[in-house]
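User: My notes are a mess, but here's the protein and zinc ion's SMILES. Can you give me a structure?
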Amino acid sequence: MTCVAGPQTFLPPYLLERIAGSASPRLRESARRTLYEDTHFRARAAVSTLPPGSTVRGRPARYVHDAQQLRTLPGELVRAEGSADSGDPAVDEAYHGLGDTYRLFWEVFQRHSLDDRGMALVATVHYGENYENAFWDGRQMVFGDGDGELFNRFTIAVDVIAHELSHGVIAYEGALVYSHQSGALNESLADVFGSLAKQYRDRQRAAEADWLIGAGLFTDRVKGRALRSMAEPGNAYDDPLLGRDPQPGHMDDFVETQDDHGGVHINSGIPNRAYQLAAVALGGYAWESVGPIWYDTLIDSRLASDCEFVPFAELTLDNAVRRFGSSSRQAEAVREAWRGVGVLP
Ligand SMILES: [Zn+2]
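Assistant: No problem, the inputs look usable. Here's the predicted complex:
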């Protein structure tokens, strides 16, 4: 598989840096340790071989481990495929979140796990002490418990789990380079399928969905609904400590920065909003309307690893035409959505 450099952490560094500058010694300490972890990723003992995958198409092979607040991976196996609820919310949320993500990719796109060959879905919970992040390390998912003051445990939102696993799917499909516009597309696709997994699990129509990424992750001390809003980029949170959600929702507000791999978690707001606009314009279930168009684009051999927003938008349009026809309402909605965010003229 093509691997991208470094871990794809859920929380971007700029958010943790703000917490690391906070007045509370405890919050400062948790954020600094999390940032240290995230930048010294290569020192982590990652799983070298994956456990057996699933030979039965339509059935996942899940393995959930408990790191017991240590930083060794994968930790102790506490729940495997087919076993009953453990009673530990983090373990059970991880197990069910892996299943919800598997079901979206299998039932909607006939994809058998991340590699379409039944690859084992491996997760570790209770990673580190007060670790404030979740990440996909190229082989497995890892979840921290949060600090309990600003962040709840990272398994709490199914879209966060599906977001991280979608990075795995993206990596198997040739991996959009994780920097600048291609990196923002990588982030956006992870949000698209993250949000789709939640909508599919809850059988929500586009008009009913909250279009939030990470709802439930903030404790009620934070002034915010979630980490990101696909419908209203820039309006997910506005908090004295965390600052304001920096995502733009239009090319006019595109952020030029070297931080965050060139703003991958920031400018992803633009393609996120295009997808959301098309989904809402078409109505019904997003997994029957725009979801398949975006999936066709993700697996399209013409999708270059350094693809930027304009060629990506053109490719989604071409896939809408291929699937639904050139004068279809789907093609029209996709074209209008990209115009709405200023990517297509
Ligand atoms: Zn991500």
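Residues 1-5 have pLDDT under 50 and may be disordered.
User: Great, I'll file this with my notes.
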